[in-house]
């Protein structure tokens, strides 16, 4: 379910990006139900998938409307510390002990993009000073399609080892002051 790999982290981080907007009650049960159906061993019933996908879409639309309203009320800078806290959650979600939580290229790429957007939210300077640039650059290189390819056809165990190491580095990089947008 690569298309929503970071949804849980984003839902639980509402209060970080939008002070005053609570993350409590931001569970996404309709999305969870869709994931559960899609992760069954047998091919799920297409009608059931369509129904759960519509319910998940509606749930996500309501959540995004709340976020947009919060952003409209206070279009100011990202609160200091929010990008790092969200990056911590993304990196922690990517690593499960001494292995990756998910070995799927799409999910890993989605998590990398979330981490890269947190780097951008600091204006880049905060991320660079906090040691984010190296691990992010290495993640990008590991997830990049080979030259002339339109997919990650050579993606395998070696990439996964490096990707886990880079998410670990992001997760354990000492906290330093961040920039602001």
SSE topology sketch:
Blueprint: H1 7-12, H2 14-17, H3 29-38, H4 46-73, H5 82-94, E1 95-96, E2 99-100, H6 105-121, H7 125-129, H8 133-143, H9 157-172
Antiparallel strand pairs: 1-2
Textual characterization of the structure:
The protein is mainly α and 181 residues long. It has two domains: 2-73, no CATH class; 82-172. The chain has nine helices and two strands. The chain has helices at residues 7-12, 14-17, 29-38, 46-73, 82-94, 105-121, 125-129, 133-143, 157-172; strands at 95-96, 99-100. Strands 1-2 form a two-stranded antiparallel sheet. Helix 5 runs antiparallel to helix 9 and helix 6 runs antiparallel to helix 8. The radius of gyration is 17 Å and the shape is globular. The two termini are 31 Å apart. Mean pLDDT is 82; it is low at 177-181.
How would you summarize what this structure contains?
With 181 residues, the chain is mainly alpha-helical. It has nine helices and two strands.
Quick tags:
single chain, 181 residues, mainly alpha, 2 domains, two-stranded antiparallel ribbon
Question: What string gives the helices and strands in order?
Answer: HHHHHEEHHHH
The low-confidence runs, each spanning 5 or more residues with pLDDT under 50, are 177-181
Q: Return the average pLDDT rounded to an integer.
A: 82
Structural domain tally? 2
User: How many strand elements?
Assistant: 2
Strand content: under 5%
The quaternary structure here is: single chain
Radius of gyration: 17 Å
Main β-sheet description: 2 strands, antiparallel
Strand order of the largest sheet: 1-2
């Amino acid at each position: 379910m690569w298309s929503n790999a970071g949804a849980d982290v984003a839902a639980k981080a509402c209060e970080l990006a939008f002070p005053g907007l609570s993350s409590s009650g931001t569970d996404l049960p309709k999305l969870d139900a869709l994931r559960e159906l899609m992760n069954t061993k047998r091919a799920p019933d297409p009608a059931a998938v369509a129904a759960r996908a519509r319910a998940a879409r509606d749930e996500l639309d309501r959540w995004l409307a709340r976020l947009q309203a919060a952003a409209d009320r206070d279009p100011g800078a990202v609160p200091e510390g929010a990008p790092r806290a969200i990056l911590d959650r993304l990196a922690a979600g990517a690593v499960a002990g001494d292995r990756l939580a998910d070995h799927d290229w799409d999910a890993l790429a989605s998590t990398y993009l979330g981490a890269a957007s947190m780097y951008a939210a600091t204006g880049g300077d905060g991320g660079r000073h906090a040691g984010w640039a190296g691990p992010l650059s290495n993640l990008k290189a590991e997830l990049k399609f080979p030259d002339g390819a339109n997919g990650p056809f050579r993606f395998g165990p070696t990439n996964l080892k490096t990707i886990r190491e880079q998410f670990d580095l992001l997760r354990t990089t000492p906290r330093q002051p961040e920039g602001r947008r």
